[in-house]
Amino acid sequence: MKPSKDISRLLEIMAALRTPVTGCPWDIEQTFETIAPYTLEEAYEVADAIQRGDLDDLRDELGDLLLQVVFHARMAEEQGEFGFGDVVEAITRKMIRRHPHVFGDDDARGAGMAKGMWNRIKAEEKAEKREARLARGLDPEDNGAGYLDSVPVGLPALTRALKLQEKAAHVGFDWKDAKPILDKIEEEIGELREAMEKQDTSSIADEFGDVLFALVNFGRHLKIDAETALRGTNEKFRSRLHHVERELEASGSNLEKATLDEMEALWQQAKGRNQ
After folding, report:
1. Binning pLDDT at 50, 70 and 90, where does residue 110 land?
2. Mean pLDDT value of segment 91-113
3. Which of 55, 138, 178, 212 is in Cβ range 3.0-4.6 Å of 221 for a Cys bridge?
């Protein structure tokens, strides 16, 4: 079998990998649940390639992410639920419906993206899902979802916090501006201190989470995405410690041998160089 730019070749490869007896034992034993962590990991690696500006790597990582989509679709097809073509049809239908100002008739295109159109389209999609549940003999109202339950649990925690807060804000459950949130952060830190004094492990973790949640909310009001900001800080930390490592090696030492004072001095050096 030869590589190809045709998506059908990738579908053939996945089918072969999942074929009992002749396929790959590892691929055959996978389930939606076991593959899900890899799907998230590949999405992160796509974001990493973009951050680094490495387009060659981005091409490869996008391929890895596409493989995840094909993998899930293949498992669903084996269960008689849907196939890759159904996934493509679903997203093309959604994109066409949500952009009538691009794909609609002359009147729709001429009107542009009218105010409220997006919410109206989303409401239509929700009604269709309700009808689909009815057709399957399911309770159309009992879908196990509250107002915030549409925010995926599998998102990174900081991103999910942001999405939960944004959605709550749509119904008016939000701070009017950023300043009062600073008071909330200080309040949460105070509660964290109390939990630490009591040495209550469970409460410490709970209060620590409250501090993080409040910080995400504060960042949102400052138009700062917490996940992006922390990613930048992570890279800054990595770069500065790498500077410490290089300088120690140049002097015949290393991270394991150096004292904390030696590492701190080199850290401040890296900080001074804005590394």
Report:
1. low
2. 77
3. 178
Tokens of 274: 């804005």
- With cut-offs at 50, 70 and 90, classify the pLDDT of residue 48: confident
pLDDT higher at 153 or 93: 93
DSSP letters for the chain: ----SSHHHHHHHHHHHHSTTTS-HHHHH--HHHHHHHHHHHHHHHHHHHHHT-HHHHHHHHHHHHHHHHHHHHHHHHTTS--HHHHHHHHHHHHHHH-HHHHS-HHHHHH-S-TTHHHHHHHHHHHHHHHHHHHTT--SS-SS--TTTTS-TTS-HHHHHHHHHHHHHHTT-S-SSSHHHHHHHHHHHHHHHHHHHHT-HHHHHHHHHHHHHHHHHHHHHTT--HHHHHHHHHHHHHHHHHHHHHHHHHTT--TTTS-HHHHHHHHHHHHHTT-
State if pTM tops 0.85.
no
